[in-house]
Amino acid sequence: MARGLEPAGRPPAVDVAALAYAYPGGRQVLYGVDLHVEPGERVALLGPNGAGKTTLVLHLNGILTAGSGSVTVGGMRVAKKTAREVRRRVGVVFQDPDDQLFMPTVRDDVAFGPSNYGVRGAELDRCVHDALEVVGMLDVVDEPPHHLSLGQRRKVALATVLAMQPEVLVLDEPSSFLDPTSRRELAETLRALDLTLLMVTHDLPYALELCERSVVLSDGVIAADGPTYDLLTDTERMARHRLELPYGFDPRVAAGPRRITPARQVG
Question: How far apart are CA 136 and CA 19, in angstroms?
Answer without folding.
Answer: 37
